Structure formats: C-alpha cells, structure tokens
Amino acid sequence: MQLTEDLCSLEEPWRTRFLVLIANHATGQQWDGQVPDRSEVTAWLEEDAALQRQIALMLETWRK
Fold first, then answer.
1. Are 15 and 7 in contact (CB under 8 A)?
2. pLDDT of 6 higher than 90
3. How many separate domains does the chain show?
4. Which pLDDT value is given to residue 18?
5. Which has the least CB within 10 A, 10, 26, 27, 45?
6. Is-contact 39 23, C-beta < 8 A?
7. What is the distance between the alpha carbons of residues 29 and 20, in angstroms, rounded to a whole number?
8. CA angle 23, 17, 33 (to 5 degrees)
9. Tell me: the pLDDT tens digits for 20-59?
10. Which of 5-9, 21-25, 37-41, 60-64 comes out lowest in average pLDDT?
11. Which of 15-23's residues contact partners 24+ apart within 8 Å by CB, and which partners?
C-alpha cells in the first residue's frame, strides 16, 4: 500500500510518531507503545477506510 510506504519513508521522529498514532487508533488506545511493523500498519489501514482517509489527510497536510 502506497500510504504505508509513504509513512515508512518519513524521517524520524515523524515516522515513529505517525506509526504509533495509527497503532493507537487501530487498537483503541491499547497499543503497547512499540513501533508497529509495516504489515501491521498496512492491515489496519486496509481494514479501516476512515482511518486510512484520516491518516492520508494528516500526512498530506503535514507535508505542505
């Protein structure tokens, strides 16, 4: 998924911040704080269209 690739290509600390944000949203704030791997992020974004749109919009806004 291109969105996952775009997120994973960010420089630190932004990469980790975005990925942990996604993990927290996807797990109802139950994430353990570790950086999720690429496959987890992709699965969450594919399963939740609203989350995918929200993160894509946040990334687009942040990059401007």
1. yes
2. yes
3. 1
4. 96
5. 27
6. no
7. 10
8. 50
9. 999 999 999 999 989 999 999 999 999 999 999 999 999 9
10. 60-64
11. 18/55, 18/58, 18/59, 21/55, 22/51, 22/55
19 neighbors 7 (Cβ within 8 angstroms): yes
The amino acid at 63: R
Q: Note down the domain range covering 9.
A: 2-63
The string over 35-53, giving b where at least 16 C-beta atoms fall within 10 Å of a residue's C-beta and e elsewhere, is: ebeeebbbebbeeeeebbe
Tokens of 48: 């939740």
